Automatic annotation (TrEMBL):
GO terms for molecular function: dioxygenase activity; iron ion binding; L-ascorbic acid binding; oxidoreductase activity, acting on paired donors, with incorporation or reduction of molecular oxygen. InterPro entries: Oxoglu/Fe-dep_dioxygenase_dom (IPR005123), Pro_4_hyd_alph (IPR006620). Keywords: Dioxygenase, Iron, Metal-binding, Oxidoreductase, Vitamin C. Residues 215-309 form the Fe2OG dioxygenase domain. The keyword Iron applies. Coiled coil: none annotated. Pfam families: OGFOD2-like (PF25238). Its cofactor is L-ascorbate. This is 2-oxoglutarate and iron-dependent oxygenase domain-containing protein 2 isoform X2.
Amino acid sequence: MATARAPRRFCRCACFCTENLYVARYRLHVRFQGEQQLLRDYGRILRSRGCVSPKDFQELLGELEQEVERRQRLGQESAARKALISSSYHPARPDLYNTLQDEALAPEFLAAAEYSSSPGADLEGLLQRLETVSGEKRIYRLPVFTAPFCRALLEELEHFEQSDMPKGRPNTMNNYGVLLHELGLDEPLVTPLRERFLQPLMALLYPDCGGGWLDSHRAFVVKYALGQDRELGCHYDNAELTLNVALGKTFTGGALYFGGLFQAPSALARPLEVEHVVGQGILHRGGQLHGARPLGTGERWNLVIWLRASAVRNRLCPMCCRKPDLVDDDEGFGDGFTREEPTAVDVCMLT
């Protein structure tokens, strides 16, 4: 009798609680291990950005200590929210919780994915089926979802937003939006999108960044509106690759801007601005520095999928740039690390 295969266990790197803590008012990511280390490593730049009085510094310490505590509780609290939503939430669009159908996807996206999966497919052929935003930065764009699907997903997201269900922050920089695994849309929507469509595309576009080895993801929707989050500071993603799809609604401003890879000197010397187009997705490397300009009017909702390859990140954590110090995580995909031996795959190079 065959034995069922145990599900893969994913982990986090211990640096999650100490590295890349974002301080919005000073527009700065910091490493935090205590007061003296913070003052030694960031005192000068903090003073240059307005943290000048003892009161300012004590308020900053309090914020960082709260953020560390929040991150330490994150897995447990996320699991509790997911369980409550699963048992008590009544969707406006229950059809979205069925397995992703081709009818939800733009014809251009289907054609590009079908080509990428065909025998003899190569990068040159794929580039004829999508828009190259920047060959130098390896940023691409193509339609992903149909307009009716974008409207349906927005209807569901707004219904959830207005409900009394608990809501987690999408990430450490955005305050408004939805974590798709908590809402229950990971398995029916994001996993088949990654496995059936994005994997073959990314394998051709980014073979050196784990594009052919994608085995987990983190997906969330972010919302920008007047009186809420309006812009996003410069950062890089905890991912090998990223898909960012504009879902709507009607808005002005809020363009993405891209620099170089975060490891490179003067990575933001000549940023490239890219306007959002509803239904279209922007593909880029996770290590590409980027941010969002201030929203002018309206509301902007974007689906962001961080695509991860344990074959790459098991060698080097992209957030602390060290061999990962693994911590077991019982919640979903963790941060995409596994305890398996790294696979022989070429890693993303500075280009």
